[in-house]
Specification:
The complex is a heterotrimer of chains A (353), B (184) and C (767). Chain A is mainly alpha-helical and 353 residues long. Chain A has one domain (17-339). Chain A has 17 helices and 2 strands. Chain A has a two-stranded antiparallel ribbon. Chain B is mostly helical. Chain B folds into 2 domains: 35-98, Electron transport complex subunit B, putative Fe-S cluster (3-methyladenine DNA Glycosylase II, Chain A, domain 3); 103-167, Alpha-Beta Plaits. Chain B is built from 5 helices and 4 strands. In chain B, a hairpin with a 7-residue loop joins strand 2 (129-130) and strand 3 (138-139). Chain C has 767 residues and is an alpha/beta fold. Chain C has 3 domains: 1-31 and 133-289, 3-Layer(aba) Sandwich (Rossmann fold), CATH 3.40.50; 392-490; 494-766, no CATH class. In chain C, 52% of the residues lie in helices and 10% in strands. Chain C has a 6-stranded mixed beta sheet with strand order 1-13-12-16-14-15, sandwiched between helices. In chain C, strands 2-7-6-4 form a 4-stranded antiparallel beta sheet, with no helix packed on it. A 4-stranded parallel beta sheet of chain C has the order 10-9-8-11, with helices on both faces. In chain C, strand 12 and strand 13 (308-313) form a beta hairpin. The termini of chain C are far apart. The chains are: A mainly alpha (353), B mainly alpha (184), C alpha/beta (767). Chains B and C meet through helix 5 and strand 2 of B and helix 14, helix 15, helix 16 and helix 17 of C. Chain A: The complex is composed of six subunits: RnfA, RnfB, RnfC, RnfD, RnfE and RnfG. Chain A: It is a multi-pass membrane protein. Chain A: Part of a membrane-bound complex that couples electron transfer with translocation of ions across the membrane. Chain A: Keywords: Cell inner membrane, Cell membrane, Electron transport, Flavoprotein, FMN, Membrane, Phosphoprotein, Translocase, Transmembrane, Transmembrane helix, Transport. Chain A: This is Ion-translocating oxidoreductase complex subunit D.
């Protein structure tokens, strides 16, 4: 009589890749919802667009590569990429922005490098950067939070905006961007950067309508939602603490240092931590396992370096926010980091006599 | 005057860099094996002569002088690949005439048939056959490289090549090789 | 050191990195006490059940053995004997599927129990504390005890360390899920285990004995605590449950905070670890004299009706255990020897219980689903977080898959303990451990091959050097001999000494052949028979291979080799190891002489026949088989003859070298004299043959006709050898020196031609 053979271990933990991906998606949803609540339906619509594009692209390419696409679709990694991309696109950006972005992320950044597990760069961030550089106008047309916007847009308005660039009442994007005072509103980071170049001080800039208590209105809540989701991920051990903690810490340290040196020109750490997509970046983007460092020591370096780059680019660079650039830069450094920051194997080195 | 200065500056730079390079050449000198030895290390040392040379070292010398790297059946594709890496050429498939992948074998003398002719002893490139004229010969199987060279000279065909049996120690965790259905 | 001890006293343990918490499910099988089972119909006692080398079988088929009788005896320090688990007769000594993942057949003794269970004379050693330590160690070795935790390291080696031991760690962790054999053993036989620990304590004399037990086995810990409470040196260490806390290295780290250095042994840091089962076996061996013939095996998994622990005699086939616990497996089921993390799947159920078998696991599909198809690695590093050795499993996987052995070793592949934690947590279900095992096996075999290749290279080069050296020596001798002869000949007649020497030489030369002839006759007879045998085989061979072309190709290289190597044929002894060379050289000389005389005789005979036969060859082409056989002999002889001159000179030179002043200078001088002549003759003959063959080849004739006269020639060695020896006395040096060059060229040409041609006839030639 003979039996089935398999290599040990014969027992496996129940968590698999698809579950991991779905967990991350679930944890990112609160952030997405808050974002939609504050800035309108646009993000959700883009999420839907990007998801469809990403999944279709993945199926086609896997078919071309003669791989089994069923497994690849079931692992939900394409949906996660679409989600991360959608939340970084301005809500009322035209529909083709998210379509191009999702296509680029899946086709070029992910599949051309060999599919899941082989991509050097974070697909969502690489796509975002491509969009930002190719379509700077559309990609920077952020709206003021609904609470202080002059015109509000409901779901149909949002659809209309995304597909025709005009709301049903005929308002253009520029009109929707206007705040209560009639001025065109930008993101807090944009605003601050513009004001600083105009010679205003940090505290003067904070008087602008989009700031409240020294923080951008709405953005605080978005970041809090992502922070909450991220903490759940940590609790579930879906991600390690090393990258988010070191990223936030290094950003905070940089910001505090500069703020202490010249409080008029440099914003406080709190402002930096809760502006833009920092929490999204720290917990959901930089921790993407495929393109991040893999050793614990390496992760600390990786996260800290991203924080450092974010601050540098925010302050001295041409772009208001810098998560995508920073993550991509450090993605490139991952092989180096992994090579040099290996853990000490049992019985090797230090305590081995 | 500017011309002189710049000439002087460039000359000085050249001197400095020359010194640095010279120092580096001495300080970081790489002691490399002669090419033939490096090639020889990659060859399987069966000394079988299937490449057309009387042993691995001669073939190594031939490769160093530009012969093809794909003439070593005992080494198989792995050796060809290593040689290609070393020589900086593209790996080629094994030569047609001996394209089979190697299975490690050793010679075995059916001792009751041996007439003690010593022909195999002469043929053995690594002196792995023991015996004297008119006495039975035997193969020191640990030393046998499986080169095959002793099989043909045998006038009574009492030498055969037997595949080396897998032992539990040398087992390669090839679950497929166990004659039962494998899961997954 | 003190603080370390204090910390241990206070039960503050260290932690090792990584680890996983699979559901332990020990309650399936740890409810009832250890059961005794009926004897199976046949026991298969594997000869090798431990790391090291197997012992020599000292029993025979049909022999009756008693319970506990040793079946093997250890020939070297790394082997332990195996014993008959019960009394009975030996049915067979044969290969049997081994308790190894490969299930490769290994030697086993098959015993048919007679049901009496009759013990051998047991020799307990109750007073072990009065005995010499080495005696106790010997008793442990004789009892066949090897580590029962998993690896099966011979215990007697472990208990005789060369270094001081600070900690003796008793491993009762049993961190693998499902397994409860050590658990039950500790609960029921704590006192015996304690006795075993006492013996170890006496042998090793450690500062502290730490008994490690996981906190999911409170009953076992309590039992051990009660058993050990009167000795302050013994400390029960209850450690948190985490897989693989029971790994040797991990337990040492947990209990002492120290790490075993790479490539080191625990004893390097003053630690010795023994499994509780081993302690039990030691107590059995010392206090009752019983060898290790049974062990506790856990039968568990949802497939069993009655999961339990049993005392299984070593050698019990698994099928018997399954039947005992009420399980009839279907062929598609999985059966695992060992635990779910490190156990291996059994290929069949004939495999016997061995000393390291702690568990038979028969999981249902629902409790242990088959691994799903593996997916791409997403570099999540869950494996690195789980690795107890702080390795980087995904990098290792990458290099293992790419066969990049160097890199894999740089990432410390060999520090992997194959615990399976990485594969357990992998969300992509990649069988990581399997890749590592394969890579390790590959690396080991590559290293082995490398060693062998180096050895082969060495031997090849040594051989080449030897051949060159011989060549040079031979040439040098020829030259010297020739000069000596010239001097002797040209010397003045008044040179009495030379004359006497020459006369002596001649006299001896005459005597020598006549002495040799008797031998020659014998040997010729001998040879005839062998040749006849060979011919018979050759015939068969030829019949099998009718096609000329293939034969040609196959034989091409052979004949060439033979020609070029001909002069080495007389020195087979050089193939022997160096330390017996001297003796062998002497033997070789003797053999060579005998051979020479025999061949001289044949040579002259065949020589003439060859010369006769060549003209005939041109026109006749007969296919008669009988004639072919004869032809084969003739050719063989012709070839031998062609080599002979060289052989002779080689052999004789050696003889001459060693024995110039000895009793047989004549052999040397006569041979030397004969040498040039023979060379000429041989060359001429060879040339003739070559030419003839070339012609024939051109005419596409495969057969070479011969006449049958040579066979007669063999039977007349006396006459020929005499005529030969008389010939040899005639000096022809002048001619030799004059025609030297010409001849050599001619010879070379002839040889080349002969080689070309010989391929066709090499087969026959050889025979």
């Amino acid at each position: 009589m003979s039996f089935k053979l398999a290599s040990s271990p014969h027992q496996h933990s129940q968590r698999n890749t698809a579950q991991l991906m779905r967990l991350v998606i679930w944890c990112a949803l609160p952030g997405l919802l808050v974002q939609s609540w504050l800035f309108g339906w646009g993000s959700l619509i883009h999420f839907a667009l990007a998801t469809v594009t990403a999944v279709v692209t993945e199926v086609i390419i896997l078919e071309v590569r003669k791989r089994n696409f069923e497994v690849a679709i079931k692992d939900s990694s394409a949906i996660l990429t679409a989600l991360l991309l959608a939340v970084s696109i301005p809500p009322f950006a035209p529909w083709w922005i998210s379509v191009i972005g999702a296509f680029f992320a899946i086709a070029i950044v992910k599949q051309l490098y060999g599919g899941l597990g082989f991509n050097l760069f974070n697909p969502a961030m690489a796509a975002y950067v491509v969009l930002l550089i190719s379509f700077p106008v559309q990609m920077t047309a952020w709206l003021p939070p609904a609470s202080i916007a002059l015109h509000s847009a409901d779901f149909l308005d949002s659809l209309s905006m995304i597909f025709t660039q005009y709301s049903r009442e005929g308002y253009s994007l520029a009109q929707l961007q206007a705040g209560i005072d009639g001025h065109t509103m930008a993101t807090p980071l944009d605003q601050l950067k513009t004001d600083l170049t105009l010679g205003m001080t940090y505290s003067e800039s904070l008087n602008n309508a989009i700031f409240d208590n020294g923080l951008g209105i709405g953005w605080l809540w978005v970041n809090m939602a992502y922070l909450a989701g991220g903490l759940v991920l940590l609790k579930q051990k879906a991600i390690n603490w090393h990258i988010p903690v070191s990223l936030l810490l290094s950003l905070a340290v940089m910001a505090t240092l500069f703020h202490l040196v010249d409080g008029d020109r440099f914003a406080s750490a709190t402002f930096h931590l809760f502006s833009g997509g920092i929490m999204l970046g720290a917990f959901f983007i930089a921790t993407d396992p495929v393109s991040a460092a893999t050793t614990n020591k390496g992760r600390l370096i990786f996260g800290a370096a991203i924080g450092f780059w974010i601050y540098l680019i925010r302050i001295f660079g041409g772009y208001p926010d810098a998560i995508a650039f920073s993550v991509l830069i450090m993605n490139m450094a991952v092989p180096l980091i992994d090579y040099y920051f290996r853990p000490r194997t049992y019985g090797h080195g230090r305590s081995a006599r | 005057m500017l011309f002189v200065y710049s000439l002087f500056a460039i000359g000085l730079l050249a001197l400095i860099f020359g010194l640095i390079l010279g120092y580096a050449a001495v300080r970081f000198k790489v002691e490399a094996d002669p090419l033939v030895d490096q090639i020889d290390k990659l060859l399987p040392q069966t000394q079988c002569g299937q490449c057309g040379y009387p042993g691995c070292k001669p073939y190594a010398e031939a490769i160093a002088n530009g012969d093809d790297i794909n003439k070593c059946p005992p080494g198989g594709e792995a050796t060809v690949k290593n040689l290609a890496d070393l020589m900086g050429v593209d790996p080629k498939p094994l030569d047609d005439s001996h394209a089979q992948e190697p299975i490690k074998k050793v010679a075995f003398i059916r001792e009751d048939e041996c007439i003690g002719c010593t022909k195999c002893i002469v043929a053995c490139p690594v002196d792995a056959i023991l015996g004297a004229a008119k006495h039975m010969h035997t193969v020191i199987s640990d030393e046998c490289t499986g080169c095959d060279l002793c099989v043909d000279p045998c006038p009574v065909d009492c030498i055969e090549m037997r595949p080396v049996e897998a032992t539990a120690q040398s087992w390669r965790w090839d679950l497929n090789s166990i004659p039962v259905k494998q899961v997954s | 050191m003190e603080s370390l001890l204090n910390r241990i006293k206070n039960q503050r343990w260290w932690d090792f990195p990584g680890g996983v918490h699979p559901p332990s499910r020990k309650d399936i099988s740890n409810q009832g006490s250890i059961d005794n089972i009926a004897l199976p119909e046949l026991l298969h006692v594997s000869v090798k059940q431990h790391i090291g080398s197997e012992g020599k079988i000292k029993v025979e088929v049909g022999q009756r053995v008693l319970k506990g009788e040793a079946l093997t005896h250890s020939a070297n320090p790394f082997s332990v004997p195996v014993h008959a688990p019960t009394s009975g007769t030996i049915e067979a000594i044969d290969v049997h599927p081994s308790a190894h993942p490969s299930a490769l057949p290994e030697m086993a003794v098959h015993i048919k129990p007679d049901g009496l269970g009759q013990w051998i004379d047991l020799k307990p050693m109750q007073d072990y504390q009065q005995q010499n330590k080495s005696k106790v160690v010997e008793a442990i070795c004789k009892a066949g005890i090897s580590g029962m935790g998993g690896a099966g390291f011979p215990t007697h080696i472990k208990v005789s360390p060369k270094k001081d031991v600070q900690f003796l760690i008793i491993n009762g962790i049993e961190c693998e899920p499902y397994i409860t054999s050590d658990d039950r053993l500790m609960r029921e036989y704590a006192w015996q285990i304690r006795q075993g620990i006492d013996v170890l304590q006496y042998l090793l004399n450690p500062k502290q004995v730490l008994i490690g037990i996981e906190d999911n086995k409170p009953e076992a810990a309590e039992a051990m605590r009660v058993a050990c409470r009167d000795n302050e040196q013994y400390q029960i260490c209850v450690v948190p449950t985490k897989y693989p806390a029971g790994g040797e290295k991990q337990l040492i780290q947990t209990l002492t905070g120290q790490e075993v250095p790479q490539n080191g042994l625990p004893v390097d840091i003053g630690v010795i670890m023994q499994n509780v089962g081993t302690c039990y076996a030691i107590a059995d061996a010392i206090f009752s004299g019983k060898p290790l013939i049974q062990r506790v095996v856990t039968l568990t998994g949802e497939q069993f009706d009655a999961p339990q622990n049993v005392w299984a005699p070593i050698g019990t086939p698994i099928s018997h255990l399954l039947a005992h616990a009420g399980y009839q497996p279907a062929s598609t089921e999985r059966l695992i020897m060992g635990g779910p993390m490190m156990g291996f799947a059994l290929a069949n159920d004939h495999i016997p219980v061995v000393k390291t078998t702690n568990c038979i696991l028969a999981p249902s599909l629902s409790e242990m689903p088959l691994p799903p198809q593996k997916q791409a690695c997403i570099r999540c590093s869950a494996c690195a977080d789980a690795c107890p050795a702080s390795l980087l499993p995904q990098q290792l996987l990458w290099y293992a898959k790419a066969d990049d052995h160097e890199k894999a070793q740089e990432y410390n592949l060999f520090d992997c303990i194959e615990c399976g934690a990485c594969a357990y947590v992998c969300p992509s279900d990649i069988p990581l451990v399997h890749y590592y095992r394969t890579a390790k096996a590959d690396i080991r075999s590559a290293q082995q091959e490398k060693i062998q290749a180096d050895k082969a290279r060495e031997r090849f080069e040594a051989r080449k050097a030897r051949l060159e050296r011989d060549q040079i020596e031979r040439e040098e001798k020829h030259r010297q001999a020739a000069e000596a002869r010239k001097q002797a000949m040209q010397a003045d007649g008044s040179d009495a000494k030379a004359k006497i020497a020459a006369a002596l030489a001649r006299a001896k030369a005459k005597k020598a052949p006549s002495e040799d002839t008797s031998q020659t006759a014998d040997e010729a007879d001998n040879k005839k028979q062998q040749v006849a045998d060979a011919i018979a085989r050759a015939k068969a061979k030829r019949a099998a291979k009718q096609s000329d072309a293939t034969i040609d190709k196959a034989q091409d290289g052979v004949s060439g080799d033979e020609l070029s190597n001909a002069d080495n044929a007389t020195k087979p002894a050089d193939a022997a190891p160096a330390d017996v060379k001297k003796q062998q050289v002497a033997e070789a000389i003797a053999r060579a002489k005998a051979k020479r005389t025999a061949k001289l005789a044949e040579e002259s005979a065949s020589e003439s026949s060859e010369e006769e036969s060549t003209p005939i060859a041109a026109d006749s082409a007969q296919d008669d088989k009988k004639q072919q056989v004869a032809a084969a002999i003739a050719r063989a002889k012709a070839k031998r003859e062609a080599k002979l001159a060289e052989q002779q000179s080689a052999a004789n030179d050696k003889a001459a070298d060693n024995q110039q002043t000895d009793a047989e200078p004549a052999g040397a001088s006569s041979a030397d004299n004969s040498e040039p002549e023979y060379q000429q003759k041989k060359q001429r003959v060879a040339a003739a043959i070559a030419k003839a063959k070339a012609k024939k080849a051109a005419q596409q004739r495969a057969e070479k006709p011969q006449d049958g006269s040579e066979s007669e020639a063999i039977s007349e060695p006396e006459a020929t050898s005499e005529s030969l020896s008389s010939e040899t006395d005639t000096p022809e040096n002048e001619q030799q020196t004059a025609q030297d060059k010409k001849q050599r060229i001619a010879a070379a040409v002839a040889k080349a031609k002969a080689r070309q041609q010989a391929k066709k006839d090499a087969q026959e030639d050889n025979s």
